[in-house]
């Protein structure tokens, strides 16, 4: 999508935009392995499993996994965040015959 299309989609649902609003597009990653911005990058497209604890690894999200995203921007003397966004992966419905 172009930025224009994203703005129209966002505002068409009744969510107004105002000067100073931020819109994130894509995965924000850095140049080093510790600055990867997605599970796909962290696991090198599923070729290097991520060790979650001594008994659990993940290459991709699985049914039952719960994901929590938080974020903030910090400047000189201030910090702005958006709270938590939490969701659990549920099994896909079977395809109709």
UniProtKB/TrEMBL annotation:
InterPro entries: Fumarylacetoacetase, Fumarylacetoacetase-like_C, Fumarylacetoacetase_C_sf
Listed pathway(s): Amino-acid degradation; L-phenylalanine degradation; acetoacetate and fumarate from L-phenylalanine: step 6/6
Cofactor: Mg(2+); Ca(2+)
Keyword Calcium included in the entry's annotation: yes
Gene Ontology MF: a single term: fumarylacetoacetase activity
Keyword check for Zinc-finger: no
Domain of life of the native organism: Eukaryota
Annotated protein name in UniProt: Fumarylacetoacetase
Source species of the chain: Adineta ricciae (Rotifer)
């Amino acid at each position: 999508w172009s930025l224009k299309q994203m703005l129209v989609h966002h505002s068409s649902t009744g969510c107004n935009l105002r000067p100073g609003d931020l819109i994130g597009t894509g995965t924000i990653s850095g140049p080093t392995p510790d600055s990867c911005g997605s599970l796909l990058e962290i696991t090198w497209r599923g070729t290097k499993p991520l060790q979650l604890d001594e008994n659990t690894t993940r290459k991709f999200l699985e049914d039952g996994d719960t994901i929590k995203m938080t974020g903030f921007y910090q400047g000189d003397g201030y910090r702005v965040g958006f709270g938590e966004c939490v969701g659990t992966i549920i099994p896909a419905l079977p395809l109709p015959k």
